[in-house]
Amino acid sequence: MNYFFEDLELPNMIKTQLTSTSDFKSQRAGYKTSGTATSLHVLRSLRGAMGRRIAVGGKSARRLKAAEAEMTALLDQHTDSQDPHLLALKQEIHHLRTRLLAIPFIDPFDLRYSNRIKIPMPASQAVMFCILDVSGSMDEQKKDTAKRFFILLYMFLTRAYDKIEVVFIRHHTTAIEVDENVFFHSRESGGTIVSSALNLLAQVIRERYALGDWNVYVAQASDGDNWDNDSVTCRELLINSIMPLVQYYAYVEITEGDPQNLWLEYEQVAVRHSHFAMQKIEKQADIYPVFRELFKKQPK
Fold first, then answer.
1. pLDDT at 95 over 50
2. Could you list the residue range(s) of the whole structural domain that residue 289 is in?
């Protein structure tokens, strides 16, 4: 799956500050002297303990080293064991060692705990509208191809994005918002009025996904067969009402022959709006290449 979705993304994703949802990012902010055992920073605590021991016992350690060296020199000279100076050195060495051993290896004062703070981050959330043509001209093979495309899209979205909502719309002469199960399994069919789906799309965007709070995406699959007059209506709906509301619109036409009237009208939308993309699927082997082309990473 990582290989399939490598270098893919939802185009034109922007981060918007949401009014209803606040995102916070945990960030390191140094150390503190109190905290829970799970936040104890062992390395930093040991480093502090070592510095304290050096600071407190440094003078005694240096004197101990010098006294031991002096005593060694006296013993090498076969100085009498009862020599007052040698006895004084032995007593001083014992005192210094006792003093150094009294310095604790680690003290509560040395403990340091990781300090983390939460900083507000701009939140990005997206909604993908999946629009499926289930009219009579979409035979079972075409519907199966369309569903495979949408399954691939759904897997990509849920795997790559934390905050993503998916809205499923099916249409023939009328359009209806459905759940995932109905979208992929219902056998309802009928005539073709594509504008019914676009009108429902615009309505749902206005009612539930306010401009500025959501990144809105649309993926539409159809065989392109539509009433000529309705295809013109679809073009006008897209240019005037829908494209200003969305970040990206991907249209997939599933047909083995020449482009249908819906494709010809949609070409005029693509000329007007750079974030409108069109691709054609003739056979199932085209699904994955078309999917990658539609959702490849854009140059920054």
1. yes
2. 123-294
Residue carrying structure tokens 């002096």:
70
Q: What is the pLDDT of residues 115-174, one digit of tens each?
A: 887 765 545 678 999 999 999 889 899 999 999 999 999 999 888 887 789 999 999 999
77 and 152, same domain (yes or no): no
Pairing mode, strands 126-133 and 215-222: parallel
Is the per-residue pLDDT at 24 higher than 90?
no
Assess whether 141 and 277 both reside in one domain.
yes
Same domain, 136 and 75: no
Is position 104 within any domain? yes
Q: Determine phi and psi for 13, rounding to 5 degrees.
A: -65, 130
Q: What is the CATH number of the domain that holds 163?
A: 3.40.50.410
